[in-house]
Amino acid sequence: MKAIKFHKPGGPEVMQYEEFNLEAPAAGEVRLRHTAIGLNFIDTYHRSGAYPVPLPSGVGLEASGVVEAVGAGVTHLKEGDRVAYGAGPIGAYSQARNMPANRVSVLPDTISDETAAAMMLKGMTARYLLRETYEVKAGDTILWHAVAGGVGLIAVQWAKHLGARVIGTTSSPEKAALAKSFGCDEVINYTEEDVAERVRDLTDGEGVPVVYDGVGKATLEASLDSLSPRGLLASFGSASGPVTGFDTGILGAKGSLYLTRPTLMTYVAADEDLQANAADLFEVVGSGAVKIEINQTYELADAVKAHQDLEGRRTTGSTVLMP
């Protein structure tokens, strides 16, 4: 079998397409033949060393595939089952792998393998943010940064399904048009407009109860200044770099604000929470309420190019790698 691995942290070029031997699945595991693999920004954090992992390491947390073998003690899955996962463990950039059977979900017939690989991590991220970190309700106005990205396009549809008004930010007119085509009510081009000032204009000076920010350092100030008193900033990513040296006194000065740095892995650490999250995702996608936009496809062997395009902001929506 072949897989993408890296032996030292760094830029995309540290990834190598290597051969490896795949053992039979151990007790509690299943062997999957991957049919599609998801590309996510967190993959670049692992590869670069921003999120350190033991080396050498594989890459990727999300894929779909077919069960080819079942280890001892696994009774809820069988050979031939179509499954997907989106919360690791790391190593999805591979033709095949062994996975803990309790961390995969059986795919319904309404969802294709490519769609599943494009949506699991991003869709489960949108779900925990919208339904748990802050429970979005009908009539809420929310702000979502980088709304034309993979998580953003899923989230805007889901938030609209819940009855919310969505303000998004993007870096170009093309990305703004894409976000609006997916239902985003207002889009702010942060390269040309003052985000917080525009949010205040759009909310009659009140601000929003929640800001979802996967950008990090570059958007922190605008995010805080966009919140209403006692509002919540969910800082769930750091595409522009991590937030460091933060003075918590700012939260009080700006209106007794709340700040959280949530991760999907915490929200789906329990198996029952993982399956409940996936079930909700399958329901909204299967019903058509949320459509998954796959705008880029690469061969697994071209993972270096895929990472270069992702970090260069040359991608929109979801991206899949084909093994």
Main pleated-sheet profile? 7 strands, mixed
Strand elements, count: 16
pLDDT below 50 for ≥5 consecutive residues: which ranges? none
Strand content: 25-35%
Radius of gyration: 20 Å
> What is the multimeric organization of the chains shown?
single chain
* Mean pLDDT over the full residue set: 96
- Determine the fraction of residues in helical runs and give it as a percent range: 25-40%
Structural class by helix and strand composition: alpha/beta
- Estimate the global geometry from the Cα principal axes: globular
Distance between the termini: 10 Å
Q: What letter string, H or E per element, gives the SSE order? A: EEEHEEEEEHEHEHEHEHEHEHHEHE
* Count of runs of 4 or more consecutive helical residues: 10
What's the structural blueprint in terms of helices and strands?
Elements: E1 2-6, E2 16-19, E3 29-38, H1 41-48, E4 57-58, E5 63-70, E6 82-85, E7 96-100, E8 105-106, H2 113-133, E9 141-144, H3 150-161, E10 165-170, H4 173-181, E11 186-189, H5 195-202, E12 208-213, H6 220-225, E13 227-235, H7 249-253, E14 258-260, H8 264-267, H9 271-286, E15 294-299, H10 303-311, E16 318-322
Parallel strand pairs: 9-10, 9-12, 10-11, 12-13, 13-14, 15-16
Antiparallel strand pairs: 1-2, 1-4, 3-5, 3-7, 3-16, 5-6, 6-8
Helix pairs in contact: 2-3, 2-9
